[in-house]
Amino acid sequence: MTYNNSVWTVDGSNGNLPGVLWFEGDVIVNLSKDTYFKNTVISTQKIKTELLNETKDSLYEAYAPHHFVLTADTIELKDERLNQICPDNFPLQYCAEKGTLKSTALMQEMPAVMSNILFLAQAIELSAGKEKQHNIVANYYGNIMANGASGGTGGASGKFTGTGVLNIRGNLMVVGEADMTNMLGDFSMKLSNADEAGNYIPVYKKVFNIGGIRYM
After folding, report:
1. What is the pLDDT of residues 110-122, one digit of tens each?
2. How far apart are CA 80 and CA 114, in angstroms?
3. Degrees (nearest 5) of the Cα angle 150, 153, 159?
4. How far apart are CA 50 and CA 129, in angstroms?
5. What is d(CA 46, CA 28) in angstroms, rounded to the nearest whole number?
6. Ramachandran region, residue 13 (left: φ > 0; alpha: ψ -120 to 50; beta: rest)
7. Residue 159: strand, helix, or coil
8. Spatial contact of 143 and 170, defined as CB atoms under 8 Å apart
9. Cα 160 to Cα 109: distance, rounded to the nearest angstrom
10. What does the angle CA 137 – CA 122 – CA 167 come to, to the nearest 5 degrees?
11. Cβ atoms < 10 Å from Cβ of 179
12. pLDDT band at 103 (very low <50, low <70, confident <90, very high)
């Protein structure tokens, strides 16, 4: 990760440490066609994705950590992916130990449920490639949320740019007083259902406990 001109850049081409990345400010996530991106990224401002080294028949894939496991189609691949998102120095949010997620019940609660988030920010801008005729595809697996007021635009916003193919497998949520979603370019976007376990999202809940009752 680098920081320049008040913008954080996450380089997905060099591999990455799995877990939850939390930033103050704008974030650019560079996706590589040679490396799976498998993180939760949370920002107080804007998250923007960019595709590196676009060539014909390029496939880019970004996963929330839990979705990286849920999308494995064989036991062997699932075990391999578990060891990638829960390595020796495993993230405490959602891993019980090396190669092992927390229990199913705990995966539905904070903080483990954060592993279902791919991107959470005030504003989201996802790239879908630049040349549709060259079969450039970007797949995003996980819950994507633009949450709260984003200052300059007056509300949360989601923006999709490019002329390629963009697929989102998960929940796409844009909330705020002045919601706005822009789609720029000639591309196709497909939303599809995530695995049931991958649909759990964090919910803020405030609980009041009674300290005492006085009878008058």
Report:
1. 899 999 999 999 8
2. 21
3. 85
4. 8
5. 8
6. alpha
7. strand
8. yes
9. 30
10. 15
11. 13
12. very high
Distance CA 3, CA 11 (A): 11
- For 62-209, where are the alpha helices, taking DSSP H only? 65-70, 75-85
Q: What percent of the chain has pLDDT over 90?
A: 41
Q: What's the Cα-to-Cα distance from 142 to each of 40, 90, 116, 160, 216, rounded to whole Å?
A: 9, 20, 6, 16, 54
**Both tokens of residue 208?**
């009041």
Nearest to 121 by CA among 47, 205, 15, 58: 47
Burial 128-148 (b: 16+ CB within 10 A, else e): bbeebeeebbbbbbbbbbbbe
Q: Which residue is it, tokens 């498998």?
A: 38
Please tell me whether residue 58 adopts helix, strand or coil conformation. Answer: coil
d(CA 137, CA 130): 10
Asked if 101 contacts 107 with a C-beta cutoff of 8 angstroms, the reply is yes
Span 75-96, pLDDT tens digits: 999 999 999 999 999 999 999 9
**C-alpha to C-alpha distance for 88 and 98, rounded to whole angstroms:** 5
Q: Which two tokens stand for residue 74?
A: 């064989």
Residue type, position 205, single letter: K
Give the residue among 206, 208, 160 at the shortest CA–CA distance from 186.
Answer: 160
Distance CA 179, CA 67 (A): 27
Amino acid 133 reads: Q
Helix (H, G, I), strand (E, B) or coil at 12: helix
Measured between alpha carbons, how far is 38 from 17 in angstroms, rounded to an integer?
A: 8
